Amino acid sequence: MRRRPGIGGLQNAAAARDQYRLLGENVAKLRTDLMKEQLATFRSQLEDFARKHKNDIRKNPAFRAQFHEMCAKVGVDPLASNKGFWAELLGIGDFYYELGVQIIEVCLATRPHNGGLISLDDLCKLLGQRRKAVRETISEDDCLRAISKLKVLGSGYEVITVGKRKLVRSVPTELNKDHNEILELAQAQGFVTVDEVQRRLNWSSGRATDALETLLEEGLAMIDDGHRDGRRRYWFPCVSSVSSYVGTDAL
User: Fold this and answer.
1) I need a labelling partner for 105 at 20 to 30 A (CA). Which of 66, 98, 170, 249 fits?
2) What is the second-level CATH architecture of the domain 45-172?
3) Is the backbone of residue 84 left (phi > 0), alpha (psi -120 to 50) or beta?
């Protein structure tokens, strides 16, 4: 017959558990303190690195992207504030705020032609044309970082992925799965027809027409009825070449 542990045994077991718990808490605290110390060292080294390579960070887009990755690993966001150490050292906050304003201007200027949806590649090209005077090269990474700061403006100004292409949305229009599939299909030649959507996506005529007409109403599509076959083409400037934009010289 097994004997139940006495009061003394229970007390000893409880004391042992308390000791193990305290030991675990002490080990966790030591690890946390060590990690904080290491992060402080990394941040200090990062500041020294930034001082040494200031010009490369400002002028070289690839180098700038790698610098941002280094910052992210140690929990530093040079764009969190337009004041303080990073702004004074690199002026990097000013760079992205200025780029954000230019992104808004390009999106507004091209909206009559694309309905507020422009490919990230085209946006970068138009920004590059606009910034020739300042001779500062920008990359897609720069545009993505600047756009992320525009979210404070509310709806719109976000990057969505359609197929293998990134599109920048500057209006609060919500695209559903059907709209995304049509945009992805249109990437091949810049336009689609109702028959093509039916055949390629295995949709009914009503479903294809409804989705296309919604995109047309939102200003994301343009219609072309001037073909001999009599089939209406729905063109999508947001997946067409940048050269299709009218009046880009005014940017």
Assistant:
1) 66
2) Orthogonal Bundle (1.10)
3) left
Q: Confidence band (pLDDT; 50, 70, 90) for 233?
A: very high
Nearest-CA neighbor of 80 among 104, 97, 63?
A: 97
- Tokens in use for 79? 């764009």
Report the alpha-carbon distance of residue 132 to residue 134 in Å, rounded. 6
Q: Is residue 243 predicted with pLDDT exceeding 50? A: no
Q: Among residues 165, 177, 156, which one has the least CA distance to residue 236?
A: 165
In whole angstroms, what is the distance from residue 162 CA to residue 220 CA?
14
Report the CATH fold assignment for 174-243. Arc Repressor Mutant, subunit A (1.10.10)
Which pLDDT score, from 0 to 100, does residue 245 have? 52
**The overall pTM is greater than 0.85:** no
CA-wise closest residue to 170 among 227, 225, 228, 219: 219
Q: How many CB atoms lie within 10 A of CB 125?
A: 17
